[in-house]
């Protein structure tokens, strides 16, 4: 779908960020925003059925779901809520990433919100993928190119339904608000503050330059402890 609002960042910034994997973005964040070293990214493992897909960078669409308890809404109210949810997901600036918290507590992941239908619908609505601590299913029928990071894979959707959307969620230790900028790949995800986004590609390149002398000697047939010490010294001098 087309966007209906001006994005807070140029598309070129998102494209530049997508050239790096998420661990590299985390490294770069330590340089440009060291105060976020312990916050803003997933800290619990998530299942990624499509590890070869490239990194995705987009603005969050946040939702909470539950599946153990049946929705208390009437069929008519549920239909209205579903349309409102799709309107929320499919409007605003993009590209978008769906971030969904399962609020079933000890039964998290009991029922899958995501499968063949939702992955294809959300892709058509302008989403690049989903990050959820809930479960997903229908992996062979999943929308092509639509990334997924999930808490688990399961067979049934039980009574799954969207409980709320547009508010703050917490998935795998990462707190996300609607419209937050997200970078994610098979390793996990990180929230990128708007004000530092444009600085991250340069910082990522700096991280790479600092790693190069260390990796070169570590991979060399002439490796020695003395050469490693020298490489570490040269790495520290790169700015």
UniProtKB/TrEMBL annotation:
Tell me its cofactors. Answer: a divalent metal cation
UniProt-listed Gene3D superfamilies? Ribonuclease E inhibitor RraA/RraA-like
What Pfam families does the record tag this protein with?
Answer: RraA-like
State the name under which the record lists this protein.
Answer: Putative 4-hydroxy-4-methyl-2-oxoglutarate aldolase
Q: Which species?
A: Bradyrhizobium brasilense
